[in-house]
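Tip: read the tokens left to right.
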């Protein structure tokens, strides 16, 4: 890039940069990451098989595998139950739909990492512990579901590095409790109808579940701060 502005005695400044373009090299093998389950509950473990196989057939034996697990908050919003809220955020200023603000999107957080070597089948088998306490970038505990991205980078004999990825959805419990109101805004001293529900991971209603209810009062006062 050249910055020009020499008119009327102004100085001319310039800046240069470069980059290298490597020749394309088609991959010789592929990497797959296969969890034993697609959904589970936190506080358990999950088996994962990472496999490297040549596209021409055969296993990539003795290859170095560097893997990591990233955690990111997920949402539980069954389409058939859109009236209900299943979150427990205690923050009235939280923005739930700030699509215009990229910084508001939760960032994946490193959870686990390690290194291993593929066996005679070209596989590396792991048992991953899924903690009950998973926190976001700010250090706050994630109380809802968490999407776990399992990534594996395999280095072949020709120093070519290829990656594979798998995913597990970790639920906080084996069911969800939801709440809905018949009005979005209510008047003081007026009754309001509250509906409570317990559902499974697919949004199916569960009968005979005990739900404890807590009602909290919060007041906002407008104060001028010079």
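Filled-in amino acids:
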């Amino acid at each position: 890039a050249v910055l020009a502005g020499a008119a009327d005695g102004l100085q001319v400044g310039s800046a240069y940069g470069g980059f290298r373009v490597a020749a394309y090299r088609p991959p010789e093998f592929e990497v797959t990451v296969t969890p034993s389950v697609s959904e589970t509950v936190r506080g358990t473990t999950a088996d994962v098989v990472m496999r490297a196989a040549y596209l021409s057939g055969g296993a990539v034996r003795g290859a170095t595998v560097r893997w990591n697990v990233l955690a990111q908050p997920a949402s539980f919003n069954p389409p058939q139950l859109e009236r209900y809220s299943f979150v427990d955020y205690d923050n009235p200023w939280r923005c739930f739909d700030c699509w215009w603000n990229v910084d508001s999107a939760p960032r994946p957080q490193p959870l686990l990492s390690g290194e291993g070597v593929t066996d005679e089948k070209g596989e590396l088998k792991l048992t991953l512990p899924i903690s009950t306490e998973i926190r976001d970038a700010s250090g706050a505990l994630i109380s809802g579901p968490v999407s776990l991205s399992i990534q594996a980078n395999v280095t072949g004999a020709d120093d070519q590095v290829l990656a594979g990825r798998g995913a597990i959805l970790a639920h906080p419990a084996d069911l969800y409790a939801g709440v809905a109101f018949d009005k979005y805004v209510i008047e003081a001293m007026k009754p309001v109808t509250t509906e409570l529900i317990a559902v499974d991971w697919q949004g199916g209603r569960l009968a005979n579940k005990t739900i404890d209810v807590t009602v909290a009062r919060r007041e906002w006062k407008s104060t001028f701060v010079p």
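The radius of gyration is 26 Å. The longest strand covers residues 161-171.
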